[in-house]
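Help wanted!
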Amino acid sequence: MSGPKLPHDSSDLPQDSGVAQTAENKLGKGTTGITRRGFLKGAGVTAAGTALLEGARAFGREAAATRGEHPEGVREFGPGPVAVTLQVNGKERVIHIEPRTTLADALRLEMAMTGTKVVCDRGACSACTLLMDDIPINSCMTLAIDAVGHQVTTIEGLTESSEGHSMQAAFLKHDAMQCGFCTPGMVMTCSALLKKNPKPTEDDVRLATAGNLCRCGTYPRIFAATLEAAGVSDSESTHNA
Amino acid sequence: MNQFVLVDCTTVDGALSQLKDGSVVKAAGVDLLDRMKNGTTTPSRLVNIRNISALRGIHPSPEGVTIGALTTLTEISEHPLLQSHYTILTDACGTVATPHIRNMATLGGNLLQELQCWYFRSEEYECLRKGKEICFAFSGLNQYHAIMDYGTCPSVAPSTSAVALLGLNASVELTSAKRGKRMVAIKDLYVHPDANPTKFTVLEPDELLTAVMIPQPAKGTRSAYQKYGEKQSNDWAIADAGVVLEMDGNVCRKAAIVMGSASPVVRHAPEAEAMLAGKPITEEIARAAGKAAMQGAPLQTAMQGAQPLSMNAYKVQMFPIAIYRTILLAAGQMGRDPSAAS
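Answered by r_m:
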């Protein structure tokens, strides 16, 4: 494409920056004046940020750069990137994000954990479901900075717990998916249900998944898989609902 | 979503000191992030009150119950004492949106969410409630809009919990750094578009909604709420009814009947309430009360009774049924309607 070259035209970027470019586009940095080049020019800031990382690990958000004089209990972040420490699947992760970054975007774009899916990006489909302190929430409607101090469990984290693993195995056995896009959210929702209510009825499963949309219509198999993972249905049950 | 400075506060005083320069308050942020993603709200500074632990919790007392503004809808709907004494509230909070949104959304945020009219929510439409001249709903798509008391804007009252809290005669505590605390009854919290199209509640920019107080119900009180949507879950109400009955045996001493999605501001149905007062609750009288609600005298405008728009006459049929069935549910004479939201 010809035409005037903008100061921060993406063609200036190294070819290998695909992921970061996507992240920038997603966050709409092009419209806010913050660019990759400008960010790199602020190398001093980056170095200072690195020096803070140890502190950030120890104190989470408290160690992130704050500014201005504020009363006790008031801290200011952003609008640029700040160091944030998250507890994801039992591991500590330090990322640099703008305060506007959602938890779903932080996982997918900053931590390359793409198991959490984003479909509607408005909390209407629950594809982005993950657990915060064992409670299922929509990560697309939660700021990543609000997850500081909480235990975040994603679909990637379930493989290490037998409960989540048995749910995934039951989904496979019952072929409880077609396109698979709602599946991580469904598995997280159903796993959370079993933590809260180990012996649910089918109605309990229906209510728990009431916000999880599956446009392929695999609900009957999802219900059967969940009941089997809970050990409340016989494993030969059919899914001809 | 635009860039912003996030001012994180862990105390009420700290948060109050930051309510300046056009700052916008964020609790869970469910409604706010939706508007920011739509581009209809573009704050440069958010005051994050989500981490103020003092604003969470359900505190029963001899006078009633006080609920912190940051208590989630799930915490309310699953609370055993609220379930037995304030069933209308746990019914209402338990049917909002989806289970996951209820896990995040706070009571204060539910009360103060902005209108859900699709013209108001769209960046493309500069409507009356955004300070412009035109309401697009009258000549546009209005199947989910108001049928009563709407005047210049037929967007319906968005808060489900407000229906229950109006029925329970609750108040909100509004706190400011300069003026301290004031109590405002739920019936006085919302501003009708005819009074001021761009001011949705009486909350001032330097105030936080810090708590909700619900008085102790009179002895013999029974209550219920039912909501009807196009879908059984994960949907907005197209018709809903909140009912609080002060019973003496089978005789109703006093009734509160409230509708949310009928009008721009959540409203009582005084005609229906008058029909029940002093009488035994029967199917016949419950049906009559539902019909009477649609004859409603104007509360905020000059509009007498239900006056549907071009696409929502069906709502005039639905409300009497919602009210009739919910009266009988509250009275213990009918089970929960399987076609209502669960």
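OP: Thanks! One thing I noticed: Residues 1-335 of chain B form a domain with the Uridine Diphospho-n-acetylenolpyruvylglucosamine Reductase; domain 3 fold (CATH 3.30.465.10).
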